[in-house]
Write a structure and sequence with these properties.
Pfam families: SBP_bac_11. The chain is α/β, with parallel strands linked by helices. It is 35% helix and 23% strand.
């Protein structure tokens, strides 16, 4: 079975597949780019996206047989610890013009799209942050992130930026990384990221059913996702 899956699922996907009885070949990447490849005819049985829009586009195009939501996520802000001042919170940090802010690439990667929604919810402050933000990962021409390294860690430790907005499912791992501080982004500013499956062929139905099972939901929760 051939699966195309959003890069943010890479860590948890291996745990999910070990509990599934059939062999699965999975390729990861930014969900927007994967959707384009599937629409262009690339062979795939199941598409696991970090948003609803891309699977729904495949359904509307007649490429998918069904769309099934299965998980959720939020955003968080990761900061290089030594640049923080006493009293800094997530909003103060995003307004600090002395710090470089990195994000994923909107249009190619849903994380980038959710970040744009965050900026919209922040109003004037968000517009200013958007103008300064650097889309460094998840794009067609973005540099490859080293294997075993999270995007926020790589961007900050390599000196490309002091802050990164990314998925909260990575927060626990990032908090264990020396030199990084992770801040939650509260409601109502934080967008609700909805993950969904596009079932493209009949052979993918059993895997889709498993990913919706109670067993799979426990694995997703333990990995930092909502269900």
């Amino acid at each position: 079975m051939r699966v195309q899956a959003a890069g943010s699922l890479r860590g948890v996907w291996a745990q999910l597949i070990t509990h599934f009885s059939e062999p699965v070949e999975t390729h990861f990447g930014p969900a927007g780019i994967l959707q384009e490849r599937i629409l262009a005819g690339e062979e795939c049985d199941l598409f696991a996206s970090a948003n609803l829009a891309h699977p729904q586009a495949l359904l509307a195009a007649g490429r998918a047989q069904a769309v099934v939501p299965f998980a959720s996520n939020k955003l968080c802000l990761t900061v290089r610890s030594d640049v923080m001042h006493v009293g800094d919170d997530w909003r103060v940090l995003l307004n600090r013009t002395d710090l470089r802010l990195a994000t994923s690439t909107a249009g190619c990667d849903p994380s980038g799209d959710y970040t744009q929604e965050l900026f919209n919810r922040m109003g004037v402050e968000g517009h200013a942050a958007r103008q300064r933000a650097l889309a460094l990962v998840g794009g067609r021409n973005s540099a490859l992130i080293p294997t075993g390294t999270l995007a926020a860690q790589w961007v900050i430790e390599s000196g490309q930026a002091e802050m990164f907005i990314g998925y909260a499912s990575y927060a626990n791992t990032l908090r264990q990384t020396e030199g990084l501080t992770v801040l939650a982004i509260p409601e109502p500013f934080n967008p609700h990221a909805k993950y969904a499956l596009a079932v493209l062929t009949p052979k993918a139905q059993r895997l889709a059913e498993f990913i919706q099972s109670k067993e799979a939901k426990v694995i997703l929760l333990e990995a930092g996702f909502g269900v």
